[in-house]
Structure formats: structure tokens, C-alpha cells
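Homework help board

Subject: predicted structure for assignment chain

Our instructor gave us this sequence and asked us to write out the predicted structure in C-alpha cell form, then describe one feature. I got the C-alpha cells but I'm not sure how to describe them. Can anyone check?
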Amino acid sequence: MTAVANPATVAECLRVGAGFSQGDRNWLVELFGTLDARLASYHADSTELEISVKDREARGQKVTLECWLSGGEKIVTTSSEDDLHAAVMDARDDLRRRIDDVRTRREPRHNRHLREVPQPAPVDLES
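My C-alpha cell output:
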């Protein structure tokens, strides 16, 4: 991908949903800091992250992490770990893998024919 003028970051794109408070946001931004490198390929104004938890701290809680990438791609990851920290980390790690998968589909790194862009024919200035 080419360089983005306003790259997405977790701090800029993360919203906290049901089950989390604004006070949890700083903790979550710190935990999700490793996603910044993956999000940097996308525009901040068209990238969103939202995390929510159902039945927080109860047996059977479910953490959901949703990501909307510029270009219309939506990724949803979930975790049902009993420990909230472990569930958040599990959802984060799954999102990291899925963003890598999206980037691999968009950037055919090992197929030169898919990367090549036809060049315009040279212009004859002597005519």
C-alpha cells in the first residue's frame, strides 16, 4: 500500500461500547498499541474500532471487537475467555491476524504479474 496522509491509530479510532466505560479507554488503547502498525496503511477518517463486552466479569462474558477499514472491509472478532484481560488480548490478536489477511489479499507481494502496472507508451516528440 502507499503512504497514507493521515494514518489510522488506535487512539484516534477506538470507541468503547457496551460494558466498557470511558475510563477503560486508556487501558484499552495501551493494550491495542501493537495494532497501530497494521492500521497505519488505512486512512484515519475512514477507519473505526469498537470494543464491547456482554456480561462483564460474569461467567460466559463475551468480548466483541469490530473494525471497519477504509475500503468497506469489516472485521469482527470475539472472545469468550473468563478473564477480561485475556479476552481483550485474544480479540486483539485475532484482529491483528485478520488485518494481515486483508492486507495480503490487497497486496500480492509474491506475484509480480499482479503488482505490475502497465506503463504508458513513450511519446515521440520529433514528429
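Reply (TA_rk): Your C-alpha cells look well-formed. For the description, you could write something like this. The radius of gyration is 19 Å. That's the kind of observation they're looking for.
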